[in-house]
Amino acid sequence: MSSVVRPLTLAIAFAFAGAAMAAEPAKPAAKPAGKSAKPAAKPAAKAAPAPTPNSPSELELAHNLDPARAERLQVVVDRFNKETGGSLKLVRLEKDQKPADLNLVTRYDMSEVVTHPKSYVPLHEVMAKANERLNTAELSADLKSGVVDAKGRLVALPALYSTPVLFYNKNAFRKAKLDPEQPPKTWFEMQGMLDKLQDAGYACPYTTSWPVWVHIDNVSSLSGLPAVTDKGTLAFNGLPQVKHIAMMITWTKANYFKHFGRRAEGSAKFQAGECAMITTDSREAVDFQDAKGVELGVAPMPYHDDVYGGRQHTLADGSTLWVGAGRTPAEYKQAAKFVSWLLSPEMQIETVRLYGGLPLTPAARSAARSKILKDSDRTLEIAYASMKGKGASSVPHVADIDASPRHCRLARQCLPECPPGNEEGPALLMPAPPLPRWIAHRGGGSLAPENTLAGIRLAARLGYRAVTLERTTNGAGRVCDTPDSILFALDAGNGERIPRFTEAAALCCELGLLANVEIKPATGHEVATAEVVASLAADLWQGTEIPPLLSSFSLEALEVARDRAPQIRRGVLFEVPPPEWLAELRRLQAISLHCDADLLSDEVLAEARAHDIPVLCYTVNTPKQAKMLFARGVSALFTDRLDLFAQ
Predict the structure, then answer these.
(1) Which of 126, 229, 406, 464 is within CB 3.0–4.6 Å of 440 for a Cys-Cys bond?
(2) Could you tell me if residue 231 is left (phi over 0), alpha (psi between -120 and 50 degrees) or otherwise beta?
């Protein structure tokens, strides 16, 4: 089922079309008139002198910042009150409560704005009625995402916007013998660095904060494929996005990538020096720059250099300032005054210094650059260079709607912290059920003709949940040299013919079997064979509950399969695992090691278990050997003796 999200800018435009600021209430003074005319005069007389220039209305600014950032915001509020004679007070932004006078709304609270649009008043309307200048054209183009209506007018202030970048610990790079001035430019380059950081003793080579914002919205944008279409339809199921999430899953299994939560949980781990690299919002440079043991490096977010069109741009997003509805003209005037004060170049510099966000106007950006870059903080320039002047988006981001459980299916395996629930929306990856302990070798093993539909059915009847799909017949020669007319006339045993791959796949899906599809290319045909098998497997098992597991002795074939169908799991076959087997698994982004049961060493098995890599052994036909291998920690066994190990 496709999931459609209405563009946020349209929702705002429709909601605010009829919104109006409340007039200053006069009726409350006449309310007691129902009893007598005289009591009504007293409140009216007292109310008349109330609004004076020396007694500004007290406003509340609601937020849900963490204590450290709330303390910085209090500094801004105190300065405003002191310099302008205002009366602004900080309060907590509580869910499901009516909006305060001013509301600092994070991306995860945007649903409240869209759900209750009449509770807010467009900023341009507030500023106009208060005679405060607001020129939307002066706002940096990168920062207009989600805060302008259909006519290009500001409905909210992008107060604390930023864009994702890569932060890294230069001390960690030195420890891993990496050049601290040469951070990774691409994700594939980064993978090699993560391996060295892990070898240097880092249990967390890489983490991320805001994983959906970084790995869905911004990876998509960098690849030139927006995650949401102009019509509001989710569209992050393209090859670059699927390939990226498949890579993140592999990194997770290899312990390259550690994720700690859906929000900013990873930032604390990087700040503590536990993680060597992190992708997160550029504004977090303020928190990282004085972290103990961290010499902060910053670079543009990595990209995939094999995507057509090259590197594109990142997006801007962050906390926005919304004005609550139903206030008096005096209160709106005070709110407008606060916004104007915030937009001054001096306060823009102060905001960047305190929060690390992006200056709202080009003038403020120039002023901030001259004052901040003298401290060798390159974050601001890298952030703007990453956006390329295109950081604004006219449609909502997936991160803005990510809080709903039904959208969490998009990254279940990469981001397992998503809560369970009603998971509609497109599946980004094929599901990955655990591997069965027993796999019927060549379908029917020794009890039925190998690699036939009859053998597959027999394995299912005996309770096996997985089969291998390979090839043996009474014929001779190479399959690639044999015409179909001859190939399908061969006898696979007891008169059974060779099934087509499509037939075997359909039967496995029908019976709920996991198919271990071994790619067995003829010499010189590795690439072509792998391309056909991987492409067919992706099509035949698309949307099924139990996807196949591709495996091969040919590392070249597995490399092609990785690139052609990254969403399908892979296993590497070795008769005897070489010393570099783990590096090959990581390079091929494979999830399992397959090897000869008689040649599996304790050292290889221990290393595999230390990295949570399943080990599958072939071919085990005695209960004694099976018991011994399971006791050693082997994950699954291939067998010809389906009768001995019937499930």
Answers:
(1) 464
(2) alpha
CB atoms inside a 10 Å sphere around CB 36 = 9
Residue range 17-33, pLDDT digits in tens: 333 333 334 434 444 44
* Token pair listed for 25: 């209430």
Strand, coil or helix: 319: strand
Whole-angstrom distance, CA of residue 167 vs CA of residue 262? 18
CATH of domain 8-44+55-162+317-367: 3.40.190.10
Burial profile 196-224: b = 16 or more Cβ within 10 angstroms, e = fewer: bbbebebebbbbbbbbbbbbbbbbbbbbe
pLDDT tens digit string along 120-166? Answer: 999 999 999 999 998 888 888 888 877 888 888 999 999 989 999 99
CA dist 319 and 314 (Å) reads 17
pLDDT tens per residue, range 588-626: 989 999 999 999 999 999 999 888 899 999 999 999 999
Q: What is the number of helices (H) and of strands (E) in the chain?
A: 26, 19
The reply to whether 164-310+402-411 shares the fold of 8-44+55-162+317-367 is: yes
The CATH number of the structural domain formed by 438-639 is: 3.20.20.190
Both tokens assigned to 295: 């010499």
The enclosing H or E element of 10 equals helix 8-16
The residue to which tokens 């998971």 are assigned: 423
Q: Which CATH number fits domain 164-310+402-411: 3.40.50.1450, 2.30.110.10, 3.40.190.10, 3.30.300.130?
A: 3.40.190.10
Selection from 222, 215, 105 nearest residue 161 by Cα: 105
Contact 235, 228 (CB under 8 A): yes
Question: What tokens appear for 104 in the block?
Answer: 């600092």
In whole angstroms, what separates CA 316 from the centre of its chain? Answer: 15
Domain spans of the chain, in order of start:
8-44+55-162+317-367, 164-310+402-411, 438-639
- d(C-alpha 165, C-alpha 283), whole Å: 9
Q: For the whole model, what pTM was predicted?
A: 0.59
C-alpha 158/C-alpha 320 separation (Å) is 5
Report the alpha-carbon distance of residue 72 to residue 74 in Å, rounded. Answer: 5
Q: Are 142 and 296 in contact (CB under 8 A)?
A: no
Q: Starting from the edge strand earliest in sequence, which strands make up the sheet with 164-169, in order? A: 257-258, 204-208, 275-281, 164-169, 296-300
E-assigned strands of 139-292? 157-162, 164-169, 204-208, 257-258, 275-281
What pairing do the DSSP bridges indicate for beta strands 438-440 and 59-63? unpaired
